[in-house]
Queue: 4 jobs
Job 1
Amino acid sequence: MRILISCILFIAAVFSAHAVRLPAVINANMVLQRDMQVPIWGWGDAGEKITVSFAGQSKSATVGKNGKWMLKLDKLEANAKPSNLTVKGNNEIKLGNILVGEVWICSGQSNMEWKVAQCANAKEEIAMANHSAIRLFDVPGHTVHPLPQDKGKGEWKVCSPSTISSFSATGYYFGRRIHKELNVPVGLVGSNWGGTRIEPWTTLDGFQSVPELSEQAKSVAAYTADKKVGGASPSAIYNSMVHPLTPYAMRGAIWYQGESNGGEGITYYQKKHALVKGWRKAFQNPDLGFYWVQLCNFRKANVVEVKDPKKEESRPEGGDGWAKLREAQTQALDLKHTGMAVIIDLADANNPNDIHPKNKQDVGGRLAQWALHQTYDKKNMVPSGPLYSGHKIKGNQVHLSFKNVGKGLIVGKKEKLEPTKQIKNGSLKHFSIAGADKKWHWADAKIIGDKVVLSSKDVKTPVAARYAFTMNPADANLYNKEGLPAGPFRTDNW
């Protein structure tokens, strides 16, 4: 009897070893990307013929000597009606409840990882999360590897009150708006790790694409299978938590990270270029949309001592904390098919030391605003709040120009989840100007048409201006009429 059982187990093991297999991300309940070729891949016996059937298509491939195979389905139309996908080789795999729509990866550190259950109105949001056309795939755990890994873990789940609570809140609110606006299925892939820097998420190809990052590229290129890596090692998280997802067909990525690189400036700009270029190559999509979140207002304002000890005044020069990191995030918009959600108005005013703002609804919604405008060509929708585009000095005034003005500039106030309110006859705050002496003074700021005009009795001939260029510009209040905040900026490079 023992011999018989051993033989059965041996036969089962042999069969398993020779069965056609799929990566975790290709499975039941998934959403396949519409309007582009869709890679389907896996493993099997060398020389084994693999046939994939879906939506009236039948495509074949042969397993290579390395045990891998891949084929691509022709472009698919969006379809909210569940369908089956069949993979045939030496064995047969049937995957059910598959939709076709828009697929996005949601990645970053803890603010992207922050769950729906941890954020504002969690109980109500979870109870309302009955969206059978939204599907969720969460990469489990926090893992690293010195070399890119083909096999990962995870499973697709239908969005419901029982599955949404542990998923990324920013990712969910982004996907929910995309689904509502486009009326097509949406697949969301979460891969996150709190407290991580940008470098471990970046590919070797990404580092190699930026000359200033040649040292990181050399370091990663020298990795061997037995190299010990950790959560801060360049490429180590990508290798384990993103590479197994590639080249799953996706429309784009949303990214919420930067706190762990918060002391950087231009170097973060370089690393953002490496991240985006590397992921676009890895996912075999040079047009992969990439939208990130600019860091929120955090901690106390940069203050200057005043005679009254009960009163604090912000320093008009700013430049402290995350100011230069936010600037680098803005500069990286020179990459095509990218956008940035400005959220310097979303921190809890009563708890400025909370690095995890609970209002992820507006974060996800502002990311979706970019995607809808740019990726989905809704040009009647302004993508963001006003972003500085230029200035002119006219006598003792600085005239500031902006793009994304929308229906017009306003003084606004944003409170919690409520829509931004226009403050009639309100005063613009957090603008400063300086002359050639480089001494900064708070400016009188006025909205004139689609421009902001600055002046100060202390600066007769201004040469530069700044707005919200500080760690916590909590009182910054320039918006467009669509209720979206202006991004921080400076016109100088001092």
Job 2
Amino acid sequence: MGNEVLEMLNEVLELLNDAGCTKILCCVDDEGVPHPAAKDSLQSDGENILYLEFIESSKTNRYMTRSLWFDKKVSVLLLTPDKKSFLISARPVRAVVSGKYFQKFYRQAAEKHGLDLSTVWILNPESITEQTLQKRVEEEAAARPYFVHLDRLRKEA
């Protein structure tokens, strides 16, 4: 990984722990239909993305299991309070349901939410793209300078 990519990865992983960010996890159902869901329990341990699932029988938990079993990617959309947007492509690599690691998050969930914890999902981020509109406009203008709407090319009389 280049330094610029690594810096963005570190920035985004830190942002995942910011309570002011909106976090959306998107996996796909059995028919390939996207299943986006706002998930405040998305966070980072500094290397990976962690997703804490509270409901064993939830659709998201079922689709995450399917993604793990069939080696399918999921995506995380992160929107910061200052309106920056990041799209993270990640691969579920482990579902933790017991043991010391699980207990750590189980206690935190009970204290913070008063809820039981079903699963600690560990996701390995594979790519990050900043989706902020101004950033994307600049990138597209640089990559495709001739993609201009015709009315912008019209000469003034």
Job 3
Amino acid sequence: MNTTTAQPLTLEEFLLLPETKPVREYINGEIITKPMPKGRHSRLQGKLCAAINHVAEEPLVAYAFPELRCSFGGRSIVPDVAVFLWSRIQLTTDEYLSDNFELPPDWTIEILSPEQKPNKVIGNILHCLKYGTRLGWFLDPDDFSILVFLPEQPPLLLQGYDSLPVLPEIELPLTVNQVFAWLKMSR
């Protein structure tokens, strides 16, 4: 994760800048470049979005967005997966999906990349919780663990056959082992 230390910008000025690849986040007045997703990160992100959307999209319960910019509370962050309940998905006046989401997701999921500092990533999850996010997951593919964050509760470190909490509106029974089994791609 690189930090850009140029002339300080406001959040509003940052949001006027063109998007870049890799994406940049605005955190505590700093512009931070997120590392490009690599194999394990990309696979987990894709499978999580697909699994959540498989059970939540058609009944119009929720939708999982990969790499969606969410700007709120003085930050502009791009969670690896941002899950919004259907009623909170931002729409234009003519009912099309909006490009700008200026609210926290209901559920935020971050997948640690080797180049990232865990506390910076966890800091984004905590920021989301402070502003109304109901659930946060922090996946560490190196030790096959998931740190779960719930509002006003200590984090839970889950491993192995531990069942993962999801939003109560979403029926998705998953264990930690099931999530990390997606990384094994046998022929």
Job 4
Amino acid sequence: MDIHFKSIGVVHSPYKTVENMPVQTSASKDVEAEIEIFDQYKEGLTDLNGFSHIYVIFFLNMVKEPKLKVIPFLDTVERGIFATRSPARPNSVGLSLVELVSVNGNILRIRGVDMLDGSPVIDIKPYVPDFEKCENVRKGWFEGNTHKAEKILSDERFK
């Protein structure tokens, strides 16, 4: 089954290329960007300014070739794509949890950016910790490695 999405907006980010871009939002906690929501969708932003964080679902438009196995950024062992957060996914969909700084008309100011400039936005959803709370979390092969994520920038694997 083919699935088609329409872009509702575009990311305006300081990251113009993948070179030295943060791999996760934890590596860019203070970096700000804007999301421009297209006029036909701006009515959907009503009441969004009451939230501190949002999920941004976007198209990884620079991914050239999807892969089912990759060497992820915190490891040296090849892993299955669905056990990683690699952008080389079969459907090239990105998900970032960012801080919502402000909503001004159709412009969202966000902080904690790991998205390339020009990334098409597919959807936005508010983060509600009461709904997202997970207990007894297992982190799989990430266990013991996530502290390194704050220092990791993209490399040749993301080209």
